[in-house]
Structure formats: structure tokens, C-alpha cells
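Changelog entry

Holo records now carry the ligand SMILES as an explicit input line rather than a separate metadata file. Below, a converted record for pyridoxal-5'-phosphate, shown in the new format.
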Amino acid sequence: MLYKSILYFVQKGAKSRQLHHMPKAPLPGEPTKPYTLTEIPGPRSEALFNEFSKIQQVDIQYFGDYQRSIGNYLADIDGNVFLDMFMQVSTLTLGYNHRSILGALSCGGNQRIIANRPALGLFPGLEWPCKIQNTLLQPCVAPKGLPCVFTAMCAACSTEHAIQMAFIKYAERRRCGKDFTDEEKESALFNKPPGCPKLSILSFEGGFHGRTFGALALSHYRYITKVDLPSLPWPIAPYPHYLYPLNQYEKENKQEDVRCLEQVEELIEQYEKTMPVAGIIVEAIQCEAGDRHASPDFFLQLQEICKKRSIPLILDEIQTGGGATGRIWAHEYFELNIPPDIVTFSYKMQASGFYHSPEYMPKQPSRVFNVWMGDPVKILMLEAVLKTIEAEDLLTHVCYVGNYLLRQLNTLQHEFSDLISSVRGRGFIIAFDMPCKDTRSKLMYLLRTKGVQVSGNGTKTIRLRPCLIFGEYHADIFLEILRDCLQELPEN
Ligand SMILES: Cc1ncc(COP(=O)(O)O)c(C=O)c1O
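Structure line, unchanged by the conversion:
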């Protein structure tokens, strides 16, 4: 495969000059280019949408044809074929219909695992502990220093259960190891203290951690997901808002870190009497807010604050984990002195849940629990994904192609400096800003008309989230179309 040959050169320490001359081609089964035959959405998508919206309130862009989608290309039911750089909200790791995943799901033994979805917290199969060891807990997969893992149903459930563990640990410590009192047991059933204590989790402005009630209280991105729903009055700290290019604004950005960290400390103090902070949750990269990166130093100091207060640092790697940044975990780039206490995952990992240090394991069973507690099918998929990542050295590949894409976008930024700014990224978590929301919408419309699927986040950002088998060949197709679109934009 193309990326295998790329990686051969990378592994052999080939110089970038040699990499430049590598063969470029589509992956097996892929078209050579994206193409569109209709307006987007096309007439069949429109008609189906009109029917479907009678039974479900949805925000469908178009209906996919998952029989015909392949590799980096998403086909729709109107015959259009898009170069997909959003990959189902960054959740598809190996693109569409990857042979390793299809193989895992059609393998005879696995069919019975799929057919008999067990209540994993009560009746897991014989193979379950071994499957977890060989996937989530592989030494090259589990975040260093976090040997325990809780499997969950979905991304938001990961957040939900992770914060439950943080609260339980906090209350356990306060109780000094004693058993629950009768008053605690009774009052808990009526949502009242002392059984349900007034505790909080500190989150950050612009953060996003999911749409279940606890997770939503920690999410501060789109009002539409929150308005009219009761929430929890937990503390929300400012998140660093850097100026770009980073090397020109080092001093200002450092000051920004200090400002935000001071606020974190102040908020913890402020809430201590009424609703003590039992943990801090933060994304490794704030994704929905517009790919906002904070410095490794910011995370290091945040961790210091947590340690000082004996509360957990919960790192949300739901969108950033699973190889998207060219490492399995984005926080590997921070080079923290000690592991974070809890790391949530989902999306590119296929399976959802969180890792945690042994000290967070609740003393009694059933405290953090639900019937399915995850899905064995997702572990089968993860197994196939991890084997492919290793066999094809996809993390090196993501770093190489990600850097290539960033360099080319920086060049475009010089050329179209009135349109593109703040090009930023790690691996395949890449973004750039447009002058305003309106110009962004126009660019996204043009890109889609020419067969490229990207996504907007934040107020004026375009985010790119290709899958791990996106190559330099695909990057060149995207860049050529992007350049055409930028030239066509009315402002230009
Ligand atoms: C960082 C992060 N955490 C959690 C979630 C889970 O959100 P949802 O409830 O939509 O699955 C998301 C979804 O985009 C996310 O980006």
C-alpha cells in the first residue's frame, strides 16, 4: 500500500528529499478523485430527509451510501463521492469499509460475540478480560501509569462515569474510610445531602464533554444543546486563547496561561465552602470550540494544582485519542511528569470509556456501573484498528502527512492572507481560521460542491479530521480544491 512504502522510507531514516519523490496513488478500491453529480444535498437525500424528519428532529447534511463508500471517500445516495476529511465527526479511524474491520466482523467466532451482547458488568464472556488486555491495556496503547480501564457505552457516558468516580473518591476521602451512615443512605434516595453531597467539577469555557446531563453541565460550546435544560452551577474557568503564530507571541501566550491558571485557583477557593471542586476536566485540545491548543506548560501546571488539592485531572481524549495526533494520546506531547489521573476515550478508539489510576477504583462494586458497560463489538473493531496501526506504522504516517498538510496550508495562508489565518495542528487534528462565520460557510459550501467534506467548529474555524490512512496523495487533491475555492470566494 502507498503508506507502507512511505513508511519504509520514514523508518529507514530517509531524508525529506527522498520522501518528496514517493509514488502517489489512491488506495485500492478508491476513486482517483472526488466527484459530484448533483447539488448537495441531492434530490434523493432531500426527499428522504423530508420523510425522515417527520419521525426525528435531525440536522442531516446528506444520506451516506455505506455500501459504496471506500477508504477516504464517502459516497452519498445521489451518486456523489466526497473526499472525507471529517470522517463521521472524527470517529472513523481507518476510513470506510477497511478490510481489517470487515474481516474482524465477519470472522466466524466473532459472530457469536456480536450476536450475544452480554451485560459486561455481570456476565462477561471468557474472552473479555483477555480482549481488554490485548487491546485497551496493551502497553503501547494504555496511557502510561494508568493500568485500570472502565468500558462505557458511548463518548458522553465516558465523561459521565469518569466524573462519578472523581466524586466517589472525594467523598471516600472525606469519610476517612468509614462506611456510609444511615442518613447518607436515606438522603441519597431523595437527591439530598449528605447522601448526595454538594460537590462540583471544574471545567473550561468553550469545553465540550458530551450531552448527557452531567457532561452537558461541563460543556460550554453551543447554547442550542443547553438552553431550557436544568444544569449544575459548577465552576467554569477561562481557557487559554493564544495568538498565532505562536513563535511571535510567546510572551503574550505565557501571560494568557498565567491568567487562566490563576482563575482556576481562585475558583477552587471560591467554591470550597459551598460546593468543593472534586476534579478538573479538560480536553487535550479543545475541539468543538475551534481547535484551541493550550501549551504543555499549561497542562503541567494544571496538574500541579490538582496534585496540591488532591483532586483528579480528568483529560478528555474522546476526540483527540486513538492516533489522531500521530500519537495514541495527544497528552503524550505534554510530557507530564506524572500520569493524568483519568483519561476518557471513544471515537477513533471505537470503544468508549476511561483509564484511571488504581486509587480511583471504588471500594464497593456497582458504584460506577451500567448494564451493557460497553460493547464487545467495539473491542473487536479496536483490535483490528490497533493491528493495522502497528502493521502499517500509521502513527509515523500521520505525523509525516500531517506535517506535510500543515506546511502546505501555511503556504496557502501566505498566499491568501486575507482569508486564512492561524493554521494549527498536531498530526491529523488540523484547523485554520476564516475572517468570519459567513466566509467560512461560503468556503464550506464551495468545498462540498467540489466534493470535499470538512467541518466547521468554533465561530470561524475550519477543522480537518482525516482518517489515519489519508495520504499525501489525498492531501494534494484537497489542497488543489481548496486553492480553487479560495480563489472563487467573492472577497478575493
Ligand atoms: C471532547 C469531546 N468529549 C465528549 C464528546 C461526546 O459528545 P456526544 O455526547 O456528542 O457523544 C465529544 C463529541 O464531539 C467531544 O468532542
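Spot-checked after migration. The chain has a mean pLDDT of 94. Residues 154-156, 159, 208-211, 283, 287-288, 316, 318-319 surround pyridoxal-5'-phosphate (CB under 6 Å).
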